[in-house]
Design brief:
alpha/beta; six-stranded mixed beta sheet; 2 domains; 11 strands; Nucleotidyltransferase, domain 5; five-stranded mixed beta sheet
């Protein structure tokens, strides 16, 4: 069995993959759940994607005490299932690649795989510290996408940059038209993200049938979306596992 780990800006997500199905899914601020699984399960490898180098260093130090457990780091020098068409690949975050790889994997291995054909797109939307939308064009081309502030970042900016606006959160949302300053701020932040997603969908030449959303703030966005969008909490972990599978036998 392997543990797949996504070290993000705010949280560390992990799961055990025994064949193709994730189990023991965890979201934590630290590595305690990963260490606990290593001690209680027969883990051969920890596969890691990280966007925070300092946290990665800490995990690798923890893992070094387990002689029988290998570490496998996801990085840009590996082979991907997607063809990366990005003008600045050195600045493309691994979290975005893994999110897109996860969406691509789920489409290709689903019963609806034939729905992805020439002219079609797959979207992965990650509502985390930042909100990112990644666009895949048939057959497997990663075109790029959009990066915007996440919900918490927008709420924080309105509070810190302006003189009199309060610090709020997504659960302050009531309706599209806010009838107070608090509810107006909440509506502006939530609907900025909803509008970003909707605008991306309608602007593509062929509106995508396969759209996936993930991330801690997804639950605040999903109720307001008009399209058939699939929520997958382990989307990035699926992508990390797909990249690992692509490379494990050639390294």
């Amino acid at each position: 069995m392997i543990i797949v780990c996504d070290i993000g800006n705010s949280f560390i997500k992990s799961a055990i993959f025994n064949n193709e199905t994730p189990t023991n899914y965890n979201v934590n601020k630290d590595f305690s759940s990963i260490i606990k699984l290593i001690k209680s399960k027969e883990i051969s490898t920890v596969v890691i994607s990280a966007v925070v180098p300092s946290k990665l260093k800490l995990l690798l130090k923890e893992l070094s005490s387990f002689i029988s457990v290998k570490s496998f780091l996801i990085h840009k020098g590996l082979k991907f299932n997607l063809l990366i068409k990005y003008s600045t690949p050195n600045t493309l975050g691994m979290d975005r690649i893994c999110s897109a790889e996860g969406a691509f994997y789920l489409v290709k291995t689903s019963g609806d795989s034939k729905s992805f054909k020439k002219g079609d797109y797959i979207l992965s939307v990650d509502c985390g510290t930042a909100t990112t939308i990644n666009i895949i064009q048939h057959p497997n081309i990663f075109l790029g996408g959009l990066i915007a502030p996440g919900l918490d970042m927008m709420f924080s900016a309105l509070n810190t940059i302006t003189a009199e606006l309060p610090k709020l959160a997504a659960n302050n949302y009531k309706s599209l038209i806010g009838n107070s300053t608090k509810t107006s701020i909440a509506s502006g932040v939530i609907n900025s993200t909803v509008g970003l997603i909707h605008q991306t969908i309608v602007s593509l030449a062929n509106p995508p049938k396969n759209i996936f959303i993930t991330g801690g703030n997804a639950k605040y966005i999903i109720p307001h979306l008009k399209y058939d969008i699939k929520y997958e909490k382990a989307l990035v972990l699926y992508g990390i596992k797909a990249i690992y599978d692509r490379n494990v036998n050639i390294i």
